[in-house]
Amino acid sequence: MASLIKAKNGTFRIMYRLHGKRMAIYAGKMEPREANRLCEKVEELTRIKNRNGRIEESEDLCKWLSKIIGTNLHTKLVNAGLLETVKDTQLGSFCEAYIASRTDIKQQTRINLLSSKRMLVEHFGAGTDLRAIKPAHVSDFKATLMTRYANATTGRTLRRRGGSSSPMQLMQGS
């Protein structure tokens, strides 16, 4: 369990145990409510890491993480051992790495994910930075799919996830 500690100067520190070792993240000055939310996220990350789980298991956590990538907070969580570094934020290589990391899926699911990747790269371009894709861009992608494919194919492409939160869902913010 993560604990929130407030120093006399108004800064916050979050204490947690990662694989039995007591560790801390210095969160700095922030509103107490914001510090409590951060403490809850650290606690959830710690629970997942301690049982060698996948962050993709928690949709809320994935959405939150997609918002903090590239910030100082993300760097602190990486340095604390709670997250891995984001190696590449380009759409093509991100999708390839995501599909390659999915060792728990069947071959047909892998083929379906590759098909969705092809559609994404066709529309956005392989070199597009993930952080540049906003919900409005995803709406344009959906409209493009609807002109090319049946409603069922469009819906399935947007939902396709191989058992956990997909990159497409994270970009949609749904």
- SSE order: EEEHHHHHHHH
Determine the structural class based on helices, strands and strand pairing: alpha+beta
Strand order of the largest sheet: 1-2-3
Give Rg in angstroms.
18 Å
Q: What is the 3D shape? A: elongated
Distance between the termini: 28 Å
Percent range for β-strand residues: 5-15%
**Helical content (DSSP H or I, runs of 4+):** 40-55%
Please give the domain count.
2
Largest sheet: 3 strands, antiparallel
Number of helices: 8
Low-confidence stretches: 162-166
The overall strand count is: 3
Whole-number mean pLDDT:
84
Outline of this structure?
This protein has 174 residues and is of the alpha+beta class. The chain contains eight helices and three strands, in the order βββαααααααα. Strand 1 (3-6) and strand 2 form a beta hairpin.
How does this structure look, described?
With 174 residues, this protein is an alpha+beta fold. A hairpin with a 4-residue loop joins strand 1 and strand 2 (11-18). It has two domains: 3-79, no CATH class; 91-172. Helix 4 packs antiparallel against helix 5 (107-124). It has a three-stranded antiparallel beta sheet with strand order 1-2-3, with helices on one face. It has eight helices and three strands.
Helix and strand layout, with pairings?
Layout: E1 3-6, E2 11-18, E3 21-29, H1 32-50, H2 59-68, H3 72-79, H4 91-101, H5 107-124, H6 135-148, H7 151-159, H8 167-172
Antiparallel strand pairs: 1-2, 2-3
